[in-house]
Every structure is written in C-alpha cells, then in structure tokens.
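Quick one:
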Amino acid sequence: MDRGYIYLNKKSFLHNLEVLKNLSRKELCLVVKANAYGHGLEWAVKNAKESGIKWFAVASVDEGIQVKKVYEESRVLLLAEPSKSQLENIKENDIDLTVYNESFIDTLIETGDEYSVHLKIDTGMHRLGCPPEKFYDLYKKIVDSDLNLLGICTHFPMADTDETETKKSIELFEKTISDIDSTNMLLHVDNSASTLYKLDNSLICKSWDCCIRCSNTAVENENELIPTMEIKTRISNLQVRKKGEAVSYGKAQRLSRDSIIATAPIGYGDGYPWNSFPDGKVIVNNQFCNLIGRVTMDQILFDVTDANVQIDDEVTVLGNSMDGKLNISVSDIAQWNKTIEWEILTNMSKRLERVEVE
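Output:
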C-alpha cells in the first residue's frame, strides 16, 4: 500500500441491489453520476449488470458514454438538459434525455431525429422541471412530433426528512398527469430515501443512488442495507513531540502532553475533507486515534500515544476496525465537516485506487 485504497465490497453491493428489488416490483434505475458517488462508474455498472439492472442515470453526456462503453445494451438517462452542442453525441450513443424547457424541446423537434425523452415536472424541488400548469402543452408538443416520449418524471426535495411533503409531491405528480394516457410510459419519481418509504404502487420505475447505503437516512428499512465502501491507508511516519508543541499548518492545537504523532498519506487532495480536524478520528489497531492537526493536501496527523503502533500499520479512514467493534461511517465524516454524506463520497479522488473485495 502506498497512499491508500478504496475497498469496494461486491457482495454487499449485490446484496443491496436485491434488497431494493424486494422493496418494490418496480424497475430500478441506478444513478451513477459523479463517478458512481465515488465508487467508480465502471465498477458499479459492471456489477449492476450482473444483478440484472438495465437502467442507469447520469449527470453528463460523458458519463453516459462511459456507461455505454461498459454495458452497450443498457438504457441511460441524462438527468438534465444538455447544451445543444452535445446532441450528436447523444444520438450516436442512444442516450435518453430529460426535458422540461419548451425552447430545448423545440430544438430537438427541429432536428427531425427520434430522440427518446422523459418530460420532467417540478413538484416542489424548484430546481428543474416544467411547471405543472405547462405540462399538458409540452406533453402534446412532444407526442405530436417525431420525439419518443418514453417517460415522465419528477424529483423530491425532502425525501430524506419529510414523508408528508413527499406524499404531497406524489399527489401533485399524479394529478398533473391524470388527463393523459401513461399506460406505456415509465413513471419515475423516486430518489433514494423515498424508495424506502414504499409510498406508491402506481409508479413503474424507481431511481436509487449508487452509494447504496454508505450513510444513514431517516427511514427504518435502511438497516437491511450494508455499506459497500471502506477507505484504508497506512502509517507512514512516527514522531515524538513535547507538551505545548503543535503540528501541521497554522499550529491550530497545542499538545496537552508529550505525544507520539503518526502521519498517514491521505489528505484533501485525495478527497479527505479539510474540515475533519478537530473532530475527526481514524482507527489504528482497534483504537480510535484523534486528528491532532489540520488536514493537508497529502497527509493527516493523529495522536497514537496510547496505541501500540509502528510504520506501515493499517489506518482505517472509513469503515470498521479489524475486530469489528469500532466504525467510522460516512455520516461521521460528514458531521465533522458540517456537510452531507454525498459530498464526502463524490469528492473521493481517483488518486485512491479502487479495489474490489468479496
């Protein structure tokens, strides 16, 4: 081990996909944007294919092309309208489009090509999507053209915190499409947390973020899911420092005692967040060790005074201790940094090699 590894547990990943399938008879769409939430897009798509997943969602055309290279027969949905300059790439790679602006829909129609589109309705997120009152006019424009209207979709703003608001979004969605024949369309409205609520039986496609339980959410069913990612590095240096001294940039914390300080080769250049100090910790030899100075681009420093350690001992940054009694979760790291789990995951850089384990 040089800098560190992201260990990806294939067995846990496949288990989680089966849990999701058992939650609902609806077809699953795996969201693999942002390098599959840090897990590695190629790895996620390859294993999801093995599990029978056919639909994938992405945030960019380049991501869609990567999915197609791994799984040519897959269906790929681009989650936002792209620039017009990307239309040729979209056509060549048979990528489905999410649409919601009349001007962009007109552009697609003017090409004369048969793009597959999914019309998005804004049911409360107020980020992307057509207003409900404009839905029918856009729907008619699409079905009266050469475009292939394959689905209708929306997105929930509070699925991880408020079931009542999520139900209201579903009701607005259903009301908005009630005057059309959606029998042969994909109706996909879920993001990850709302899938676990088991809210609705009329929808036929559900989306799930590729992170598949690297974090804690507000729904009870999540305890059936197993974390798929661990991050480990090693002790690369040991030093003895005197009481009153300080380490790392800014000398932000004075030592309260004579201390043994370890260094590990992982930092914010690898995606380990800068604000993890002063609350952050790592696990070494089945003991928590507190960060003792600011995170640097390539290194972290932590106090191992009370641990029996040596150079090259394994350091757990994310995951379980060797005896299984201690754990550092994505939620823990997010809390130290006053952010969300998704930001932690998507910031994990390619400098950390991804390694599959069973």
